[in-house]
Amino acid sequence: MAPKKRSRVGEDKVEQVKVQATNPTGAGRRRGSFTRSPSFDSKNVVSPLSAAQFPPESFEEMMEEAEDSLADTLGAIVKVIAKHTEPNFSLPWQMRHQASSSSTGFCIEGKKILTNAHSVEYHSLVKVKKRGDDRKYVATVLAIGRECDIAMLMVEDDAFWEGVVPLTFGDLPHLQESVTVVGYPIGGDNISITQGVVSRIDLQQYAHGSIELLAVQIDAAINSGNSGGPAISSDRECIGIAFQSLKGDAENIGYIIPTPIIQHFLEDFEKNKKYTGFCDLGVFIQQLENPQMKAALKMEKSDKGVLVLKVMKTSPAAKVLRRFDVLTHFNGHPIASDGSVDFRNGERIFFSYLFHTMFAGEEAQVSFIRNGEKQSATVTLKPREPLVPSHIEERAPSYFIFAGLVFTVLTEPYMKAEYGDNFDYESPVQFLRKWLTSSREELNEEVVVLSQVLAHEVNVGFEVNNIVLRKVNGVKVKNLRSVVELALAITEAPKVTDEKTPDFCPAIDDNMVKFEFEDDEVMILGREEALAATATILSQHNIPSALSSDMSDLSSSLDDHSTVEQKPRAATASRQKGSGGKKNQKRKRQEKK
Questions:
Q1: Region (Disordered) spans which residues (predicted)?
Q2: Which residue ranges form the domains of the chain, and what is each CATH number?
């Protein structure tokens, strides 16, 4: 369904579904409601065929073949046991306690295993266990597709693959087609089989990836631990991967990742030897159904399309499209006034599906109307680059400590760490605005926030936290690295001598560092005093360095005493929680169990 007001194509639309993704059982890494495995229900079991319907020989042969076929299918489905060590985004120099989880995976051609990305996120060890086998085999994670919530594993031990018949993939199912979800949900150690039918095929918000991609809705229960399990068709082919379920009043509504998304992930890995992501056109659009508005844009009555509201400066469309263009076609597919395109017989889907099927570096043809003139151009697609990332690629978060001021990068994991699973309600408005409606103005741009202030006499009076940093010494902040370079005078800021300019401050000299924030708050510190205090603060809180490891090349610009040995009995910095923000942008959330 197309957005009612304003949306970022390929990312968030206003109308979203409140979904809860199936978290690996026992993960303990995110808050959420866990449901018990449903009790045995005869309605979910296929009724056995009557022997009276067939001659004895043919009936016995058919049943033997069916059992052999089912055994092969179940033999390819494995239990995934993982240990996770997640970074502490509130205290970015630390890691959180190790957690355990179990989920499901299945074997495919090439001696590979597919499961969900959230099943192995921040993994430190992954093992897999076959049905009927008491041995657990160590698995290597080859690729993680965070947007599409798919991960690929490999087991090197040849003994694991003995007798395994890999699953093959079927086509995208049709409505009312039967589907069987197989996995290892909570409530027991043995494999579980649940049956249902396909009830909807549309773009849905992926809880783990924070992006809208094609998904299949089914009326079979998907419980915690089912994550990564295959959805099997009546032809014994895999037609999807279980990954999330509806949270709320509705029951037995689950979602599977369909084969077009799975094949895109596999082909991406085959082409690039790594996961590169799903492409994004990079425009904000609006439905265009009002006749007077169409006339104002010099459109003919028969013309259809969507209005371009904003083009991201770093996007593929930046050199082609502009505000108030009317996007009419993508690769020859006509775009309706509600943003939909033909999908299958009698079905329509939002047009972002078209560029989600393409790969980075591929060219696409776009047609548009500009000031009444119909034009077309070619764009080279590339993966989406959100200003506020949904993930940080399995590394520790970046941080910089200066006189007790802890700066870090605004990400979804950071907001979740600070404000919980309801971060999209409870986060400060300035965070949500950056997350929902802002885009990168230049490459490598980041939103830098003052996370907290570690108390010291040098920062007396600066009792704030979780505010966005805007400038350092009058220079606009590009990313966290630029903050370090300006604060340490690696990059020299231009001197402001004109008293009429807003950046003029009579107290500023070469030894001063001025921080300006989005709420007009200002902090001014002496550089030498700040560096000396930083060493003391690091020692007090047992923090190994004032800089995260990804900026270690800048550490030489710090005084030698800015990096200290850890004291085993030192106290850890306590968090000063912010007051949160207004409930804003009531997006229907998708959360993991």
A1: 1-48, 548-593
A2: 7-258 (2.40.10.120), 279-383 (2.30.42.10), 399-562 (3.20.190.20)
Q: How many Å apart are CA 294 and CA 288, to the nearest integer?
A: 7
32 φ/ψ sector (left φ>0, alpha ψ -120 to 50, else beta): left
Secondary structure percentages of the chain, helix, strand, coil, to 5: 20, 30, 50
Q: Which of 14, 587, 16 is nearest to 285 (CA)?
A: 14
Annotate 567-585 with b (16+ C-beta within 10 A) or e (fewer).
eeeeeebeeeebebbeebb
If we measure between CA atoms, which residue out of 306, 297, 313, 385 comes closest to residue 340?
A: 306
- What's the chain's average pLDDT? 83
For range 396-420, the mean pLDDT = 96
pTM: 0.81
Tell me: pLDDT of 331 over 90. yes
Tell me the β-bridge partners of 74.
Answer: none
- What are the Cα distances from residue 366, in Å, to 311, 324, 328, 363, 571? 14, 15, 8, 10, 58
Q: How many residues does the chain have?
A: 593
For residue 195, list its beta bridge partners: 180
Q: Identify whether the C-beta of residue 590 lies closer than 8 Å to the C-beta of residue 18.
A: yes
What is the Cα gyration radius of the chain? 27
Question: 359-364 long-range CB contacts below 8 Å, 24 or more apart?
Answer: 359/264, 359/267, 359/268, 359/271, 359/276, 359/279, 360/272, 360/276, 360/277, 360/279, 362/279, 364/330, 364/331
By DSSP bridging, strand 77-84 and strand 123-130 are antiparallel
Cβ contacts of residue 199 below 8 Å, gap of 6+? 175, 176, 217, 218, 219, 253
- Residue 220 has what pLDDT? 83
Q: Are 21 and 29 a contacting pair, CB within 8 Å?
A: no
| The two structure tokens encoding residue 426 | 């409870």
Our CA dihedral for 15, 437, 310, 331, rounded to 10 degrees, sits at -50
Query: Among 452, 402, 390, 350, which residue's Cα sits nearest to residue 145?
Result: 390
* CA 521 from centre of chain: 32
pLDDT-above-90 percentage for the chain: 67
pLDDT of residue 580: 41
CA distances from 225 to 136, 229, 243 (A): 17, 9, 10
| Count of other CB atoms within 10 angstroms of residue 426 | 20
Instruction: Extract the tokens encoding 449.
Output: 């926030």
Which residues on adjacent β-strands are paired with residue 178?
A: 197
β-strands 150-154, 211-218 pairing: unpaired
- If we measure between CA atoms, which residue out of 334, 335, 313 comes closest to residue 323? 313
Catalytic residues: 118, 149, 227
Bridge partners, residue 374, by sequence:
369
Q: Which amino acid appears at position 91 of this protein?
A: L
441: helix, strand or coil: coil
Listed in sequence order, the residues at least 6 apart from 98 whose beta carbon sits closer than 8 Å to its beta carbon are: 83, 84, 85, 124
